Amino acid sequence: MSGMQPAGSGFVDVEGTQLYYEVAGTGEPVVLIHAGICDSRMWDDQWAVFARQYRAIRYDVRGFGKSAIPSQSYADRDDLYALCRHLGVEQTHIVAVSMAGHIAIAFALEHPEMIRSLVLVAAGVGGAPPSEALQHVWEEVDAAFTAGDVAMANELELRAWVDGPGRAPDQVDPTVRERVREMNGNVLMLANDEAVERPLEPPARERLGELRVPALIIVGDYDQPRVITSADLFEEAIAGSKKVIMRGTAHLPSMEHPAEFNSLVLDFLQGV
Fold first, then answer.
1. Which of 79, 158, 172, 175 shows the smallest number of beta carbons within 10 Å?
2. pLDDT digit string (tens) for 68-101?
3. Closest CA to 119 of 133, 104, 129
4. Does residue 202 have a cis bond before it (omega within 30 degrees)?
5. Whole-angstrom Cα distance, residue 263 to residue 241?
6. What is d(CA 87, CA 144) in angstroms, rounded to the nearest whole number?
7. Which domains does the chain have, with CATH numbers?
8. Does residue 97 contact residue 122 with C-beta atoms inside 8 Å?
9. 57 and 87 Cβ atoms separated by less than 8 Å
10. 232-266 confidence digits (pLDDT tens)
11. How many angstroms separate the CA atoms of 100 and 82, rounded?
12. CA 81, CA 195: separation in Å to the nearest integer?
């Protein structure tokens, strides 16, 4: 299933930059890909648990954490392919949250032979236009960032994604909010508007029916309505997929309810 690479961490050269990655455990590979408001540290509550049964791999997508984003075109799906090749991974499970769902789906469409299963958590559908509510959030974040108030831009993103539209900040575990605030603050400082991703053609939204792999769809009941709708679309379009709604969480169920999340995902993987 995979090459005999030692546990540890390192960097892999990809198109114009380097990706930071970590590996732990043995067995079938499971690649954990983080959300767009986090970096690979969001998986701290999964790391040791998953590594007891699998070869766990997590990495910082370019522009996040320790992975720089230079001013050039790129494709996250190609970065993932380069990482797999570097680590000797021939076939893998992928657990992807939010933005990472786009990466996982595009990768699966271009390299179906490398996918054992997909776990799509709070994922959107590539090519779908934003809702009016989300467009308003993004405009507010951009305005705060342009005004130099990075702290407010960060807080607005926490309210939209960590809290969700149905909760106030004081209804969310403050430890989770502060962990995300730290990671997302780093993301905001690393942003590079000149770096443009090469889109998947045709777009993933038109090709979900091509996915012929076991798939688990997880979404929080406090997430953005558009994300909940996307979960329904995934369940309908991906043959044999299973959808689970986690209660009392918004966009980051793996961080808000790690024990429940770990049980759900590990049970699914063991059944593949």
1. 175
2. 998 889 999 999 999 999 999 999 999 999 999 9
3. 104
4. yes
5. 18
6. 40
7. 8-129+193-271 (3.40.50.1820), 132-190 (no CATH)
8. yes
9. yes
10. 999 999 999 999 999 999 999 999 999 999 999 99
11. 16
12. 19
Q: How many whole angstroms separate alpha carbon 147 and alpha carbon 141?
A: 10
Single-letter amino acid, residue 193: D
- Decide: residue 174, CB within 10 A, 0-12 exposed, 13-18 middle, 19+ buried: exposed
Distance CA 205, CA 208 (A): 6
Residue 55 contacts residue 25 (beta carbons within 8 Å)? yes
Residue type, 71: S
Residue pair 28/52 in contact by the 8 Å Cβ criterion: no
pTM of the predicted model as reported, rounded to 2 decimal places: 0.95
Residue 117 Rama label (left phi>0; alpha psi -120 to 50; beta): beta
Gyration radius of the chain over CA positions: 17
The three-state DSSP-derived secondary structure of 33-81 is ECCCCCCHHHHHHHHHHHHCCCEEEEECCCCCCCCCCCCCCECHHHHHH
Q: Which is nearest to 154 in space by CA: 191, 120, 126, 121?
A: 191
Residue 8 main-chain phi, psi, to 5 deg: 145, -155
Distance separating alpha carbons of residues 250 and 243, to the nearest angstrom: 15
Low-confidence ranges of the chain (pLDDT < 50): 1-6
